[in-house]
Amino acid sequence: MGETVILTDERFDAHTWYGHVEQAARLQAVRRALDASGLHHDLHHLVPRPASPEALEAVHSAHLLRLLRQTASYGGGQFDSDTYVTAESWEVATLAAGAAISAVEAVVGGQARNAFALVRPPGHHATSGRAMGFCLLNNIAVAARFALDHLGLKRIAIVDYDVHHGNGTQEIFYAEPRVLFCSTHAAPFYPGTGAIAEMGSPTSAPGATLNVPLPYGTGNRGYARVFAEVITPALRRFRPELVLVSAGYDAHWSDPLGPMVLSVSGYAHLTGCLIDLAGELCGGKLVLVLEGGYNLDALGACVVASLRQLMGRPPGPDPIGEVAVTEPESEIDRVIQALRARHPLLVQEGAAHADGGD
Q: What dotted CATH number matches 4-354?
């Protein structure tokens, strides 16, 4: 207990498409940043194993799994303009999902304090029946479902701070009251989902989805407010036994895809909030699973900062720096107030603030 586990593998590099932004160079940059950080000897490395067919079938349709296998067996192809498959992609995708499962097993089983599954392709856009948005299998959803079905957990929180809404994760757990899915994301932006009104199935899981659609140009200050005023009180009321994080770093100001202006230090603050919440609510049980992040220097720096924090150390200096921006505070205010007024996990909190409470 007390160690931080990482799970990654050079086999993830085999899923790559020339010229595509989601390519092998992403994890190669992370490995270079890790080598330069000097953290390797203090991390516990686990070799990932592929997810079992049963674990995948618990989340994804037989049709999608068959289509992925077939497309890979034919040498690859494209599901849409964003999402590709190579001959190796089926094996790589099952390995990514398996790495997320192994990370959860290590933390829930007490072999590690926390863990980071450094995987690709990312997963949070993959729905139960569709590969999309660079994602083939929903790695974090497979791991969460495995924890519910096989590890005895009854309440899991998934926090997604990727710049894009995790539509696949939301769809998979929309009617599942045991999983609280929280997403902070740019809006309006790909894939077009993630409105405040999407709060979970009103019949079976009201309030089990918490969306925070943020205006373009939101940065360190706006995200910090959202985590303090929305994410933290929601998790405290839900009281998860495990916190999973869809760790996407494409809300960094330098990212070529995202319209947000977080810095490495800003991301470190969000990660620190989640580490503190996990410590308060579930004995520190926290697992990060890599999602987006397409500026290679920023991706590597954010991963290293997150790992330092998981190990109980300061995140270190921000090697890239910040940009001077005027954040859209009035729009952020409106989002926070709307959530406090409407979301089942926040209405009591909102009423307390309206009455002048803490």
A: 3.40.800.20
